[in-house]
Design brief:
240 residues, alpha/beta, Rossmann fold, 2 domains, four-stranded parallel sheet, 13 helices
Length: 240
């Protein structure tokens, strides 16, 4: 199956190894991967900050960059959920772009959803001999609608022990610009999330969302806590 990949700006700028592992896993699953180097951002940061004109410009570029793609897969439920659920609001008065947004909505998938529900592949020969706990991002859980899919992929990893934390559906405190505008509230939420992860005895916090992981990693490093963060695709790319 031929697919186009969208690498979110968070991953492109802060976790480039995750982008390479994302492509590595897709190719292991038998996909022919195409990467358009002209791609940039989906427009979500500007949209969430209230800059809809700027978001419309960036989102329009995204639609043009992937205009000919039959299937687009991204390692982020935040970006894919935004494209699926909000592009029609951005382009409500632009008939041409509105039609493109309706088309891309049917063609864009978050990675674990694509693997489990579309490609029907859940095992890659990965090995990760660690105890982990999974963080459900707000965007993945509430906007995109994934929960069991990433866990199904983790269950197939040799040596991995998945330990569920308390209040697993609670936000980590990032929320995009929320973390900057409401720093004290955000920090308290992050502390609670990481403490719940520590209580499980896990060595790693796994998620589908690089932005959440980055937020928790900053707190973990500052407090020098005995736990690490890792993206789902990095786990699946380990051991083979």
């Amino acid at each position: 199956m031929r697919i186009d990949v969208f690498i979110p700006c968070f991953i492109d700028q802060f976790y480039p190894d995750t982008a390479w592992n994302f492509i590595k896993v897709l190719e292991k699953a038998g996909c022919e991967v195409k990467y358009n180097p002209e791609q940039t951002c989906c427009g979500q940061p500007a949209f969430n900050s209230g800059y809809w004109e700027e978001a419309r410009t960036v989102a329009g570029k995204f639609l043009n960059d992937f205009d000919e793609a039959e299937i687009v897969v991204a390692p982020s439920a935040s970006c894919t959920g935004f494209i699926r659920n909000y592009y029609h609001k951005l382009f409500a008065e632009d008939e041409i772009q509105l039609e493109k947004s309706k088309t891309i909505k049917k063609r864009i998938f978050e990675f674990s959803d694509f693997m489990i529900n579309r490609l029907r592949v859940s095992e890659f020969g990965a090995a990760f001999h660690h105890k982990v706990t999974f963080h459900d991002s707000c965007a993945g859980l509430r906007e995109y609608g994934i929960k069991s899919e990433p866990r199904q992929l983790l269950e197939k990893v040799k040596g991995l022990e998945l330990l569920e934390m308390e209040n697993q559906e609670t936000c980590c405190g990032f929320g995009g610009t929320f973390a900057a505008k409401f720093h004290h509230i955000s920090s308290a939420m992050t502390e609670q999330k990481v403490e719940n992860a520590l209580k499980t005895g896990a060595e790693y916090i796994v998620s589908t969302e690089a932005s959440c992981l980055m937020n928790m990693e900053a707190y973990i490093r500052k407090q020098k806590l005995p736990i690490k963060i890792i993206h789902l695709v990095d786990v699946l790319a380990t051991g083979w």
